Automatic annotation (TrEMBL):
This is 6-phospho-beta-glucosidase. GO terms for biological process: carbohydrate catabolic process. It comes from the Bacteria. One of its GO terms (cellular component) is cytosol. Pfam families: Glyco_hydro_1 (PF00232). It comes from Kosakonia oryziphila.
Length: 462
């Protein structure tokens, strides 16, 4: 393959609640993720200190980050996507002053990355928010949460402005629509109107974070983060094509607001047709005008839609359901594998928004087998990643501006949907099972050496 652009960032992506553990250390407060021991799409259970769910320790990145960053360095990472746990900085969410121990922790983490010349890409909120804000204020259902989030964002921008230049607001913000508790801290059975109002608050907060970042870190860049849920029409029947357009708009909506600074006409029609009344103030409209510098997204799979309900053989992602594509194979979890779709999506998003794109999640969740000699021959993972990266290179040739690629879970971590570790994404194996047994020792899989060579060759070995 032709080499990738010289400035292309190569690395991996992790999230605080899936790797750190230490869920009550350093003054941290409980987050929504901490009260969802069965996964961030699962039920909420009140927690008490000392519960030993898998997530409470996760892979102990909180303590072991120097060892893990050394391994990422060995693979040649130029970028690591991490998230800050909001509850390490504001444990309940509404404090007047931040928690110094939490701030100091991320200082050490960013210093460690700087030591190896790894650029941090930092998500402000990855599938979690302070549980205190949910209990006391109703999460993003409350306008007050906008102010609490803005204070948190301004605090971390001011603290890390010399260390972090690349930021993301909310992870997969479009999932707020499908998983209210995870996204906006609302009960799962909330009305559409309540969910869209909460989403509106989150979109305003995202825009205020963009504005704050531009003020505090003038040489920084801040992007949004979408689940890139590309849907195809199952047939060429015009109704199916229209259905696919609408389905894609259900997530593009978020990007439209974040990139263009206002709600698109199709959404206003949807609100009208469904009797949904959202409170949008003049100040909100002014805030939304602060648009992102770049777009980031996750990409794992594609699906099909049709108006023909009889054809609804369901394929599933984390929480999205869709019709099976007869031309695609699936992962062990039923996620339909579609490398070409990544090229299509990159082109689609570039055509739509004309802003640089960053693929901040992509990867294959699979069960790995440790051989008697300790080796792990994950050729399936290598094939998946190789085929997707080939399509990224094609898209760059198509003229799409792609800033970089961070594969999901470069080290095994706790799955967001299942709260299990046996669904592994890593180049680095972590010795821990779904019951929390294991030494937490790290070891290199076959894909570790492959990814190292891909990065060293800037993609030419693909
Ligand atoms: C994305 C989330 C990640 C991650 C990934 C894989 O939706 O942003 O947090 O977990 O999906 O999903 P899972 O962990 O369920 O396999």
């Amino acid at each position: 393959m032709k080499a990738f652009p010289k400035s292309f960032l190569w690395g991996g992506a992790i999230a605080a609640n899936q790797v750190e553990g230490a869920y009550l250390e350093g003054g941290k407060g409980l987050s929504t993720s901490d009260v969802q021991p069965k996964g961030v799409f699962g039920d909420v259970v009140e927690r008490v200190a000392g519960d030993s769910a898998l997530k409470d320790v996760a892979i102990d990145f909180y303590h072991r980050y120097p060892e893990d960053i050394a391994l990422f360095t060995e693979m040649g990472f130029s970028c690591l996507r991490v998230s800050i746990a909001w509850t390490r900085i504001f444990p309940n969410g509404d404090e007047a002053t931040p928690n110094e121990a939490g701030l100091a922790y991320y200082d050490k983490l960013f210093d460690e990355l700087a030591k190896y010349g790894i650029t941090p890409l930092v998500t402000l909120s990855h599938y979690e928010m302070p549980w205190g804000l949910v209990k006391q204020y109703g999460g993003w259902g409350s306008r007050q949460t906008i102010g609490f989030f803005e204070r948190y964002a301004r605090t971390v921008f001011s603290r890390y402005k010399a260390k972090v230049k690349l930021w993301l607001t909310f992870n997969e913000i479009n999932m707020s629509l499908h998983a209210p508790m995870t996204g906006v801290g609302l009960p799962e059975n909330s009305s559409k109107e309540a969910v869209y109002q909460a989403i509106h608050h989150q979109l305003v907060a995202s825009a205020l974070a963009v504005k704050a970042c531009h003020e505090i870190i003038p040489d920084g860049k801040i992007g949004n983060m979408l689940l890139g849920g590309l849907m195809y029409p199952l047939t060429c029947k015009p109704e199916d094509v229209l259905e696919a357009l609408q389905e894609n708009r259900s997530w593009q909506l978020f990007g439209d607001v974040q990139c263009r600074g206002a709600y698109p006409g199709y959404m206003l029609r949807y609100f009208r047709d469904n009797g949904i009344r959202i409170e949008i103030t003049a100040a909100d409209r002014e805030a939304l005008a602060s648009t992102v510098d770049f777009i980031s997204f996750s990409y794992y799979m594609t699906g099909c839609v049709t108006t023909d309900k009889a054809l609804n053989q369901q394929a599933r992602g984390n929480i999205l359901s869709m019709v099976q594509n007869p031309h695609l194979a699936s992962s062990e979890w039923g996620w339909q594998i579609d490398p070409v779709g990544l090229r299509t999506l990159l082109n689609m998003l570039w055509d739509r928004w004309q802003k640089p794109l960053f693929i901040v999640e992509n990867g294959l969740g699979a069960k790995d087998k440790v051989e008697a000699d300790g080796s792990i021959n994950d050729d399936y993972r290598i094939a998946y990643l190789n085929n997707h990266l080939v399509q990224v290179r094609e898209a760059i040739d198509d003229g799409v501006e792609v800033m970089g690629y961070t594969s999901w879970g470069p080290i095994d971590l706790v799955s967001a949907s299942k709260a299990e570790i046996s669904k592994r994404y890593g180049f680095i194996y972590v010795d821990r099972d779904d019951n929390g047994n294991g030494t937490l020792a790290r070891s290199r899989k076959k894909s570790f050496y492959w990814y190292r060579d891909v990065i060293a060759s800037n993609g030419t070995i693909l």
